[in-house]
């Protein structure tokens, strides 16, 4: 039985041209009618694009933003938190978590291009693509392209947010030309033939080397040994890489080693960074959290930190967290002078996505019996399925800023305290999100439960 391995990871920028007529399309200025259609489309019977949005919804759409792009960003955000909760179940309360939900959504959206029947329907529902108010599923790719154009445009010379996609296919097979065309036009994913049948291990090493290159050496060995064998047909790769400088840097002279309280019984020393200045900040006593937003240079990307109050467990915050609640917190923050203390840390996370996706309702894509992917390989409409999906992510936070790839006490040593000022002391487990804040697009999400493990 043939199988398809789907790879999801984090990394860097890749752009290649294609010697086909479709390659002349500028996706950032293209219209939906200018794009080829995938082999199958799905219509959500409960979404009607003719219906006028409510005044509440209309007010939420940012200026100069396509409403459908906004809806896709929100769908990705809801998926991000759903997946985060699945990971939290597996990791337990004291495990670090870091991922790029946007990278994962992109990889499965590329898979959706070749899907039909219940496989297509489940992808649409699990990733909430079916909440976008358009008639059919083929429009999702157009709005993904528009979202990518907005996210990955250059924001500042000290900020890098770049993405790369690629298809690696068995050299002896012919892949659907339409699938290749759309993959390259919308996602920039060119097909590279490899000898999976004859040289599976060498193929695995080549794919891992490509990922490492695109993530500037931060993501290595994404595909573990044994993940590629002679039955592999296709590997899809999405990488995303981010490096940004804080708009307001921390001074290295203000770094002090202090205890981080992993749990009630465990603590460990970490280098804690400090600064007191104005940030977007707010306390939410009813939810038991403080929310702080640290902007990067460039005016578009920020890191959001959600810190439970001393009498609140992080697990309680995670259980109740929804995109609506997170967005409400962020909308309620105000510019406030805050004494901020956060750890300098580095975390790396890797996991299989298959069991998480199945728990969320994506069953048929991973089933040799039920998978329907007729739009990928020419003259090969049955027996193709995704055997496994992998994700690996990296984050480093220091005084200068953050580097992420995929393919954190009221007593300050040596300081006089101003008891009237607000303080944000992340000396216990907290949540973090790296987002593009003009459209609230969650690019990375994580939990820093024990920065001592990898700091």
From TrEMBL:
Residues annotated as signal peptide: 1-21
Domain Serpin: 81-451
Source superkingdom: Eukaryota
InterPro entries reported for this sequence: Serpin_CS, Serpin_dom, Serpin_fam, Serpin_sf, Serpin_sf_1, Serpin_sf_2
A GO molecular-function descriptor: serine-type endopeptidase inhibitor activity
Segments crossing the lipid bilayer: none
SMART domains with a match to the protein in the record: SERPIN
Principal location listed in the UniProt entry: secreted
Example GO biological process: blood coagulation
Keywords annotated in UniProt: Blood coagulation, Disulfide bond, Glycoprotein, Hemostasis, Heparin-binding, Phosphoprotein, Protease inhibitor, Secreted, Serine protease inhibitor, Signal
Subcellular location(s) per record: Secreted, Extracellular space
Gene3D superfamilies per UniProt: Alpha-1-antitrypsin, domain 1, Antithrombin, subunit I, domain 2
GO CC annotation, single: extracellular space
Quaternary organization: Forms protease inhibiting heterodimer with TMPRSS7.
Entry function: Most important serine protease inhibitor in plasma that regulates the blood coagulation cascade. AT-III inhibits thrombin, matriptase-3/TMPRSS7, as well as factors IXa, Xa and XIa. Its inhibitory activity is greatly enhanced in the presence of heparin.
Family classification: Belongs to the serpin family. Ov-serpin subfamily.
Protein name (record): Antithrombin-III
Origin species: Electrophorus electricus (Electric eel)
